[in-house]
């Protein structure tokens, strides 16, 4: 099925959904689509239903069961070209069976968007869908294609877990990610890489944020310094970070009104990277935090990053940039922000933004670039790690490493350093990477073919470029390269 021109990127996701629709099976087939709020799920599935002559239905928050069924009946009647009165009074089972049957006749798809909203008042729905699915597989019910979608990640993941009714019945579990750095810049139409990187560090890649901005996208760093106070630091705007951060957490019913979950998110934003550190900030025993921390991770609010070279607990970080921005910038400056001095709040926050938001975000963007770059993306893991220098008793952080593990050792394909500095990188940075490569080799890891990579927001000194060309095996990645605007200036 042809992807409409209005759908930016999403080629792989569209291909997966198209294969799901086109699979030669006359019986009912089920797919789940999930992803955080504003990531573009509804936009994508509306287009899919339109292209595939399907029926798109969306649930409404805080709507009663009677009104929800009436709304579904109206959508079905409109799709079938009949009067809604012919379907009035139908129960969930009959309405869903009718919708599936009608879309199957047209070889279309039935999309039930924001499905978790219905579950708040009709928890029997997964069981009814199981019944319809099993009847179809037994040749006693309509076939067709059904897609269930939702933003409450824990609810969506739970639908297919354990002994739940839909366990083992979905053939596709598609989790829609935010846009990457380059796609986000194209979506916002920001041509300047420095500016686009900072917008991505603040908001991430959720495309829906552009519709909330009541100010044109910034095209330079001076424009960004005016744009931030006018949007994410403006309590009168929909894009205000405090509103959005709270909205994202309230989206999942598991965390609504939970002070503990909000406290955990705040602690991680402040730098707590393990349950023990989170417990210390919250004055809670770490054993009491295991379940809520895991719940936040499984729901997509926290991210675990495991060090591939050391048997240690994963490093916990925030998954959503705007939640991080809210906790590190907005909350500390709340008095200024709420008294109309957002410009002053943003000026005072520059050191925090550069060191605790832009720097770590740039590192993650560099790791993501490596994951999608040949041949390093073929590595088992692309992450950060730590190397201990036995002689100097020093601990060295490696921002980007691509490797394969085998028998307690690693074959290291790439060793990289990513720094959002204010000056170009020099030869000393390359010398440091060579030292780290030697340390890894002395610890028994295979580094003979390791590429050394330097990532920079401000480019590279001429002597570094010349030295990299002479030595070989060096990759220099600046912002235009990171955005896919040109090839690396030095090839490995």
Structure description:
The structure is a single chain. With about 500 residues, the protein is of the alpha/beta class. The chain has 3 domains: about 10-175, P-loop containing nucleotide triphosphate hydrolases (Rossmann fold); about 180-360, Arc Repressor Mutant, subunit A (Orthogonal Bundle), CATH 1.10.10.10; about 380-480, Trna Endonuclease, Chain: A, domain 1, CATH 3.40.1350. It contains 22 helices and 12 strands. The chain has helices at about 10-20, 40-50, 65-80, 90-105, 115-120, 125-135, 155-160, 180-190, 195-205, 210, 220-230, 240-250, 260-270, 275-280, 285-300, 320-330, 335-340, 340-350, 350-370, 425-440, 460-470, 480; strands spanning about 30-35, 55-60, 110-115, 145-150, 170-175, 300-305, 315-320, 380-390, 395-405, 410-420, 450-455, 475. Strands 2-3-4-1-5 form a 5-stranded parallel beta sheet, sandwiched between helices. The protein has a 5-stranded mixed beta sheet with strand order 8-9-10-11-12, sandwiched between helices. β11, α21 (about 460-470) and β12 form a beta-alpha-beta unit. It is globular and about 80 Å long. The two termini are about 40 Å apart.
Task: Briefly say what this structure is.
The protein is an alpha/beta fold and 492 residues long. The chain is 46% helix and 16% strand.
Secondary structure: elements and pairs:
Elements (H helix, E strand, L loop, with lengths): L10 H12 L6 E6 L6 H11 L3 E4 L6 H16 L11 H14 L4 E4 L1 H5 L5 H13 L7 E6 L2 H6 L11 E6 L5 H8 L4 H11 L5 H4 L8 H10 L10 H10 L8 H11 L5 H8 L3 H13 L3 E4 L9 E4 L2 H10 L3 H5 L3 H7 L1 H22 L9 E9 L4 E13 L2 E11 L7 H16 L8 E6 L5 H10 L2 E4 L1 H4 L10
Parallel strand pairs: 1-4, 1-5, 2-3, 3-4, 10-11, 11-12
Antiparallel strand pairs: 6-7, 8-9, 9-10
Helix pairs in contact: 3-4, 4-6, 8-9, 9-16, 9-19, 11-18, 12-16, 13-14, 14-15, 16-19
């Amino acid at each position: 099925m042809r992807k409409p021109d209005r759908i930016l990127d999403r080629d792989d996701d569209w291909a997966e959904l198209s294969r799901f629709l086109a699979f030669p099976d006359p019986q009912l087939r089920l797919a789940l689509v999930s992803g955080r709020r504003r990531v573009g799920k509804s936009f994508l599935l509306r287009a899919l239903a339109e292209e595939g002559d399907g029926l798109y239905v969306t649930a409404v928050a805080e709507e009663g069961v009677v009104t929800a069924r009436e709304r579904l009946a109206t959508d079905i009647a409109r799709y079938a070209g009949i009067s809604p009165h012919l379907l009035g009074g139908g129960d969930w089972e009959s309405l869903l069976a009718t919708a599936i049957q009608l879309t199957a006749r047209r070889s279309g798809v039935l999309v039930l968007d924001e499905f978790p909203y219905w579950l708040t008042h009709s928890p029997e729905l997964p069981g009814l869908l199981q019944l319809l699915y099993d009847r179809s597989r037994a040749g006693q019910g309509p076939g067709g294609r059904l897609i269930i979608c939702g933003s409450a990640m824990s609810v969506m993941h739970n639908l297919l877990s354990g002994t739940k009714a839909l366990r083992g019945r979905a053939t596709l579990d598609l989790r829609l990610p935010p846009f990457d750095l380059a796609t986000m810049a194209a979506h916002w139409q920001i041509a300047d890489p420095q500016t686009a990187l900072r917008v991505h560090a603040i908001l991430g890649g959720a495309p829906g944020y552009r519709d909330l901005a009541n100010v044109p996208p910034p095209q330079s760093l001076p424009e960004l310094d005016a744009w931030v106070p006018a949007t994410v630091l403006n309590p009168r705007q929909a894009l205000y970070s405090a509103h959005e951060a709270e909205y994202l957490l309230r989206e999942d019913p598991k965390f609504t009104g939970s002070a503990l979950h909000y406290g955990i998110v705040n602690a991680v934003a402040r730098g707590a990277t393990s349950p023990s550190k989170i417990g210390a900030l919250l004055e809670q025993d770490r054993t009491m935090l295991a379940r809520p921390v895991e719940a936040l991770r499984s729901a997509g609010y926290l991210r675990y990053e495991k060090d591939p070279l050391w048997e240690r607990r994963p490093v916990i970080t925030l998954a959503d940039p705007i939640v991080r921005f809210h906790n590190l910038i907005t909350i500390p400056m709340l008095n200024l922000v709420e008294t109309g001095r957002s410009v002053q709040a943003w000026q005072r926050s520059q050191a925090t933004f550069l060191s605790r938001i832009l720097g770590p975000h740039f590192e993650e963007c560099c790791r993501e670039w490596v994951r999608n770059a040949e041949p390093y993306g073929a590595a088992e893991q692309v992450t950060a790690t730590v190397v201990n220098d036995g002689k100097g008793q020093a601990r060295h952080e490696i921002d980007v490493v691509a490797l394969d593990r085998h028998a307690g050792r690693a074959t290291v394909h790439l060793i990289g350093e990513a720094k959002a500095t204010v000056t170009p990188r020099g030869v000393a940075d390359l010398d440091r990477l060579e030292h780290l490569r030697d340390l890894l080799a002395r610890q028994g890891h295979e580094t003979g073919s390791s590429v050394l990579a330097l990532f920079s927001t401000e480019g590279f000194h001429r002597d570094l470029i010349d030295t990299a060309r002479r030595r070989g095996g060096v990759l220099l990645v600046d912002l235009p390269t990171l955005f896919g605007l040109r090839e690396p200036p030095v090839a490995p």
